[in-house]
Amino acid sequence: MPLSHQDQVTLLKDILNNHQMDCCGSVAECEQLERLIKSLLVNNQINQNVKNILQDVYLYSQQGAQTADLDQHILTNQGNLSEWVSHIDQFS
């Protein structure tokens, strides 16, 4: 059963929140973020403001999947993580 767009947004926020709180993550999580974002970007039910944020999160996840030090990448983006979740909550 496919996830609804709201379930996808919730999963996206959960992963971002975990990265922020734990200051660590996995390449698999970054790849999951990429898949979620690709799906959400083509969804007409998603607010354009959220789509703009998703572009930034997509870049973050791509860089995270390719970095040699994912934990440092997450630590460097702590401010962005909380900001993205907050903005997604506002518009979704």
From TrEMBL:
InterPro entries: YtzH (IPR025547). It comes from the Bacteria. It holds the Pfam family YtzH. This is YtzH-like protein.
